[in-house]
Design goal:
- The structure is a single chain.
- This protein has a domain of 211 residues: Up-down Bundle (Growth Hormone, Chain: A), CATH 1.20.1250.20.
- Helices cover 74% and strands 0% of the residues.
- Helix 3 runs antiparallel to helix 10 and helix 11 packs antiparallel against helix 14.
- It is mainly alpha-helical and 373 residues long.
- The longest helix is centred in the C-terminal third of the chain and has 34 residues.
- The protein has 14 helices and no strands.
Length: 373
């Protein structure tokens, strides 16, 4: 990030962006992996929701901040939109961009250095850093062991890596996550453009972009709390998929712009809420820390593919309603429902075999382990 403030050519910028992506790629799956290693299965979704939705909420309020900056139109001879991108007082765009990258790069380094000393390690190592007492660490590990018997880390080796990749469930979870991150990215990129196409000014568009995100955060936190409380996963995912489909179709086809705007509330709530829901669905139905590491990386990697799809299906020539892009987004919600039906059916059959004592091998290699539906 810091290096981007000093580049002089596209090639240098491309190298910096590649390095940034390579080093940043493990951050989100690493955080998800760490969170799921600390809590029992029915405590994870509301925590994953809080972790993910903080960034979504900040994104929503950034639109309001952009509106405020746009009110600085003409101040010191700088356009309002330029203030959003931290333009210099002389409107030197290249200098401004470099300055922004340098500031963001320095902030990133400061946060990373502080994090090295304060970040919480895995439960079996938290006592070593003084975060927990020996008794507290033992209590946390015992809770995890009682829940799914994987409190102790099992080293990830290449044979284990390829063995875990043979599990069809990981691929189902990955495709489901790709299908919900696609609309999450798409609406983040294009909701303001869709709202602008309804005839609002650029400034008002910024303001109107925030409420659907705020609603989505409130909805997702509520669904996550209920999902943990009643120990259900599939119904929560299905409900949010259907809500997203209804919202997207309203936005695509309703003739009234006010109703189309309401559709964005439902669309945002459905896709944003399913990000922590699908992460938790995987977390609850696998065990062993090595498998969690592989599953998290695969799932988040497919989430990035969802971002690539989102950036290509909303084409300028489809403005102002972007019906093809909204249909691709909707089709992926139906894919989630199809995969959810398949995994839920399989999980129900396997759980029934556990109850009847007819299962040949324990689920996930753990006697008495049952899938979360």
């Amino acid at each position: 990030m810091l290096g981007q403030g000093f580049v002089k050519s596209y090639g240098a910028l491309a190298v910096c962006r590649t390095l940034l992506g390579a080093f940043e790629g493990g951050f989100f799956p690493g955080c998800v992996y760490l969170i799921t290693c600390w809590y029992v299965r029915y405590e994870t979704q509301k925590r994953l929701a809080a972790f993910y939705l903080i960034s979504a909420l900040v994104g929503g309020f950034s639109a309001i901040l952009a509106y405020g900056l746009m009110q600085m139109e003409g101040l010191s001879g700088v356009r309002g939109w330029q203030w959003i991108f931290v333009s210099s007082l002389h409107a030197d765009q290249r200098l401004s961009s470099n300055f922004q990258q340098i500031i963001e790069g320095l902030l990133t380094q400061v946060v990373a250095i502080i994090a090295w000393f304060i970040i919480i390690d895995f439960p079996d190592k938290a006592h070593d850093k003084g975060f927990l007492s020996a008794t507290e660490a033992q209590f946390i590990e015992q809770r995890i062991e009682d829940d799914r018997r994987d409190a102790v880390a099992d080293p990830l080796t290449w044979p284990k890596f390829f063995h875990h990749l043979k599990d069809f469930k990981l691929w189902c979870f990955a495709f489901m996550f790709m299908s919900t991150t696609m609309p999450a990215y798409a609406l983040a990129y294009f909701a303001p453009v869709i709202i602008l196409g309804m005839g609002y000014s650029a400034a008002i568009t910024q303001l109107l972009s925030a409420p659907p995100v705020v609603f989505a955060v409130a909805s997702a936190l509520t669904v996550s709390w209920l999902s943990d409380k009643y120990r259900i996963r599939s119904p929560a995912i299905a409900f949010q998929c259907i809500m997203g489909i209804v919202g997207l179709m309203i936005t695509a086809y309703h003739p009234n712009d006010g109703v189309r705007y309401f559709g964005l509330f439902l669309g945002q709530a459905g896709c944003q809420g399913n990000v922590p829901s699908i992460l938790t669905y995987q977390s609850n139905n696998i065990r062993m820390q090595s498998k969690r590491a592989v599953g998290s990386a695969l799932q988040i990697g497919f989430g990035a593919i969802g971002g690539i799809i989102a950036s290509t299906v909303f084409r300028q020539k489809d403005a102002p309603q972007y019906v093809p892009g909204l249909w691709v987004t909707t089709a992926l919600q139906f894919l989630i429902l199809g995969l959810l039906a398949c995994t839920t059916t399989y999980f129900m059959r396997m759980n029934k075999k556990v109850d009847n004592g007819t299962i040949e091998e324990p689920i996930e290699g753990c006697e008495g382990f049952k899938y979360t539906l």
